[in-house]
Amino acid sequence: MSIARTVPGSRAPASDVDPFSIEFFEDPHRIHGELREAGPVVWLSRYRVHAVARYAEVHAVLNDWRTFCSSRGVGMDDYATGKPWRPRSLVLETDPPEHDRARAVLNKVLSPAAMKRLREGFTAAAERKVDELLERGSFDAIPDLAEAYPLSVFPDALGMPQEGREHVLPYAAVVFNSFGPDNDLRREALADAAPHMAWVAESCQRGSLAPGGFGAGIHAATDTGEITPEEAPLLVRSLFSAGVDTTVNGIGAAVYCLARFPDQWRKLRAEPSLARAAFEEAVRFESPVQTFFRTTTRPVEIGGVEVGEGEKVLMFLGAANRDPRRWERPDEYDIARRTSGHVGFGSGVHMCVGQLLARLEGEVLLGAMARKIDSIEITGPVRRRYNNTLRGLASLPITVEA
Ligand code: OVV
Fold it and tell me: Cα–Cα–Cα angle for 180, 384, 251, nearest 5°?
């Protein structure tokens, strides 16, 4: 990477790196460091957008929705100048006050009380999954664990139709690739998206959703007038979009960490009550959601650099989560660390509305592993999965012993 200190039309240092390339996905950490060191804001010349990679600036952008809006899209596409590829999300791609109405409904559906009702069933499913995998001994921790466990609990909790659930992960891959630039990943994902989109649209209708689930809960909010009947399916769509692949990659990150760092695995085994902390630290360490954009609503100075109105700003959540200005030993996975303040779930008004559900899944699964599994060993080639937003693996062959 070359970093030039000046560029016409910007006072930010410029970089020609492509943070949406396979090469970058393979090893983002060195370049994250270079971007942090270059300055508080960097100009990505390839895409003509500003980017922030330091914790302080990422946190500041996330916490100033008036200046850094979401209603023009949180991907590279600017909805002020182009049509969204799907009707825009009522919660992700809106600003207060519209955002807050939709958010309140999701907050209630995914509340601490709702988590309490789910805990027992989620725990039993985690124990069954771990028992089954111990029986097998050797398996692929991505499809057989990181994907299989969330798929065994979340679609039922949402009340998804039984038929067609194979669309869930492909649909999410489309959504998260869509936030990136018009590269091969995004183009190929969108080219094959139609059947996934059709199934999701149909499944979000009130009549498709099982009683008692998150989906039915969202539709019930139309009866009290909090949202309109036209809005409900779109809000349900947010859970289809963001409810599975995020936790798949969060759990995948945690298992990958625990398999790579035996001293941390030993610590967790000795103290299974650290399961929730071990999951949280994996979210900081790997940052399954790597990036989001905002769009400026006015000219603004970031770290002394002038950014104009109507400009996209790319936030490197993963770089912020390893910024040595904020974290001690940032590149160490340490389950005893104080992780609070990490931006793996975002921050501010848009901070992950499903974070309690993600943590519940992570906690009960890692807890079951800690109580039942003695050793974890990586026993085959680790393959990465490429996505414009999500960081995670396609394959993690492991062997476990009781
Ligand atoms: C956080 C997130 C990711 C992807 C999609 C959505 C939300 C949505 O609201 O559709």
Answer: 90
Residue in 79, 85, 89, 388 to alter for ligand 1 test, most ligand atoms within 8 A of Cβ:
89
Tokens found for residue 262: 């035996």
Q: Helices (DSSP H) in 76-213: which residue ranges? A: 98-109, 112-136, 148-158, 168-178, 184-191, 194-203
C-alpha closest to that of 315 among 49, 91, 103, 67: 49
For 31-54, what is each residue's pLDDT tens digit? 999 999 999 999 999 999 999 999
Say which residues have a Cβ less than 8 Å from residue 137's Cβ, sequence separation at least 6. 399, 400, 401
> What's at 389, amino acid-wise?
T
How much is the pTM?
A: 0.97
Helix then strand then coil, in percent of the chain rounded to 5, is: 50, 15, 40
- Nearest atom, ligand 1, residue 92 CA: 9
89 lines ligand 1 (CB under 6 A): yes
Residue type, 325: R
- Which stretches of the chain drop beneath a pLDDT of 70? 1-10
Amino acid at 247: T
Residues 6+ apart with CB under 8 A from 307: 12, 41, 50, 296, 299, 300, 301, 313
| Residue located nearest, by CA, to atom 3 of ligand 1 | 242
Residue with tokens 């207060």: 96
pLDDT given for residue 10 in this prediction: 59
Q: Which fold has domain 3-401?
A: Cytochrome p450 (1.10.630)
Domain boundaries along the sequence of the chain: 3-401
Amino acid identity for residue 256 in this structure: Y
Cα–ligand 1 centroid distance for 156 (angstroms): 19
